[in-house]
Amino acid sequence: MHELSIVEALIEQVELEVDRAGETGRVARLDLVIGRLSGVNTDSIRFAFQMLAAGTRAEGAELAITEPKPTCVCRTCGARSEIEELVAACPRCGNRDVFLEGGQELLLESIELVD
Ligand SMILES: [Zn+2]
């Protein structure tokens, strides 16, 4: 499972950031940004997190996941449409000269520690 290695890296990053900040507390909450087009399954992320966070500072932390939608930008009519799924044509004019922006994010936005 692809998500296992992502979560492994995530927990490593969390431990590192918390250490670097000189904190010794546990993690209360993690904010993640996982774009709709990133190919990452958020249920699998949560499941892997439950497993892998055990015994680390992140154990029991709340996972807050934001899933930004991609925007389809049309080179013909200039429309910027927020889309749910991959599209091959502009939702407004139907032209195929489009490109996608965003939706592929995969990042750790913030770490909240227990007081
Ligand atoms: Zn268009």
Q: Main sheet, how many strands, which sense, barrel?
A: 3 strands, mixed
Which radius of gyration do the C-alpha atoms yield?
A: 18 Å
Q: Calculate the terminal CA-CA distance, rounded to whole Å.
A: 34 Å
Strand content: 25-35%
Give the count of helical stretches.
2
Structural class: alpha+beta
Q: Return residue spans where pLDDT drops below 50 for at least 5 consecutive residues.
A: none
- Helix content estimate: 25-40%
**Oligomer state of the chains in this structure:** single chain
Looking at the structure, the CATH topology of the domain at 2-68 and 103-113 is: hypothetical protein PF0899 fold
Description:
By secondary structure, the chain is α+β, with helices and mostly antiparallel strands. The protein has a domain at 2-68 and 103-113: hypothetical protein PF0899 fold, CATH 3.30.2320.50. It has two helices and six strands. The strands form two sheets. Strands 2-1-6 form a three-stranded mixed beta sheet, with helices on one face. Strands 4-3-5 form a three-stranded antiparallel beta sheet, with no helix packed on it. Helix 1 (2-20) crosses helix 2 (42-53). It starts with a helix and ends with a strand. Bound molecules: zinc ion. Zinc ion (ZN) binds at residues 74, 76-77, 79, 90, 92-93, 95.
